[in-house]
Amino acid sequence: MERRHDVDTQKTLTSEAGVEEWRANHAKRGNKPGAGIDQQAAIEKQAQVQHALKAVYRSPEVRAGKIEALRAQIEAGTYQVNRTSLAMKLLGINEQDAV
Questions:
Q1: Which one, of 70, 87, 68, 89, lies nearest residue 78 by Cα?
Q2: What count of other Cβ atoms lies within 10 Å of the Cβ of residue 8?
Q3: Contacts made by residues 73-81, CB under 8 angstroms, sequence distance 24+
Q4: Which of 13, 39, 80, 97 is the one with CA 20 to 30 A from 67?
Q5: Residue 98 in contact with residue 88, Cβ under 8 Å?
Q6: Would you place residue 9 in the very low, low, confident or very high pLDDT band (cuts 50, 70, 90)?
Q7: Could you give the CA distance from residue 40 to residue 38 in angstroms, rounded to a whole number?
Q8: pTM for this structure?
Q9: 3-class secondary structure per residue, 30-82
Q10: Which DSSP helix (H) or strand (E) runs through 10?
């Protein structure tokens, strides 16, 4: 019976009257008018997140060399923090603005 309802819905949604009928039935079942839109937005957002994750996983480790160099300096005890640069970043000042 559920299958028949889906087929009928698909047939009637091709016309404006069918869309109005679907909205009325949707409202009778206690669904909010924008519930389908919210669900569609969530699906689209999930697709965007999946696309972004794939891009991250495909991207090369560009900074791997820099990270390893910093790790070696920290382990050797030779890493020095540039205090001026750190203070400017904490205060939100760009180096170009400070000149």
A1: 70
A2: 13
A3: none
A4: 97
A5: yes
A6: very low
A7: 5
A8: 0.33
A9: CCCCCHHHHHHHHHHHHHHHHHHHHHHHHCCCCCHHHHHHHHHHHHHCCCCCC
A10: helix 2-12
More confident residue, 21 or 79: 79
**Cβ atoms 22, 9 nearer than 8 A:** yes
The DSSP symbol for 93 reads -
Report the C-alpha gap between 14 and 9 in whole angstroms. Answer: 9
Cβ atoms of residues 23 and 17 within 8 Å: no
Look at the block and give the residue holding tokens 């937005």.
41
How long, in residues, is the chain?
A: 99
What is residue 3's DSSP assignment?
H
